[in-house]
Structure formats: C-alpha cells, structure tokens
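Worked problem 6 (solution included).
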Amino acid sequence: MVRDPEALRGLVRGVIVAPGAPSDSASVASASVRAWTRVVAQLAPIIGPRGVDSLFRRSIQLAQGEFPWLAAGPEAPDGAFPAEAFADCLAARDPDAAAEASVELLAAFAELLETLVGPGLARRLLDPVWRVPSPPASKESAP
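Solution. The predicted structure is:
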C-alpha cells in the first residue's frame, strides 16, 4: 500500500471526490465522514474504538503540517469517531482544500496502520473502505 504513496492518495481521492459528484465543501465533508465511518466499522472490532481514534488523532497531527486548520474536535469518552466536529471542520473550508486535507488524512492513517500491522494485513483491512458503495438502483414501478 505505502510502497507507492501517490497510488494510495489516488485511491483515497476516488473515495473522497467521486467523479461526477458535487464539489462543494459540504459534499466533501459528507464523503469524508462516510469513508471514516467505513474505517471505524472495519477496524473497531479489531483494535477497538480507542485504537481507531488514536490512529485518527495521530493522522491529524501529521496532516496539520500541511493543513494547520485541520482538527478532530474533543475526544469522546468512549473513543467514538468525532464525525460532527470533523465534518464541520471540512465544511468550513474551500472544497479543494477540504478534499486535499481529507485525502492526506486518510492516506496518513493508512500509512500508520501499515507501519503497525504490515502491508498485507493493512491492505486486507482497508480494501472494503476503498470500495465506494454504489447508490441503490431505483426500482421501476409497473403502471
């Protein structure tokens, strides 16, 4: 995964900024929260909510060098993902800046995870996150 950081960022960018999707800050924030919700769903059963939160907050620290305005918000007592604070932080920014910060943050998280568990396990754990669910097909109703 980290062997090619640009490929990783391209993969993450496809999750955050879907082709044809609106490119306003609220849409970027929403897509980012959906991606992080999938990360939490994948990893919390394995490393716990606090483990995910610790990696998330460390990723924020790493990304703040380039995006000093990036913030996670207050830590929840149960280690829950701070979705609302994170979405508000992104929604308050220019859409391009919000998207780039979100891409960098998720890529930093993936790199940290790989450092901790190795490339093979990190890939297996995060593969479902990169697969963006397609919207449900609308059913045609018969007259």
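Discussion: The helical segments are 5-16, 25-63, 83-91, 95-117, 119-130.
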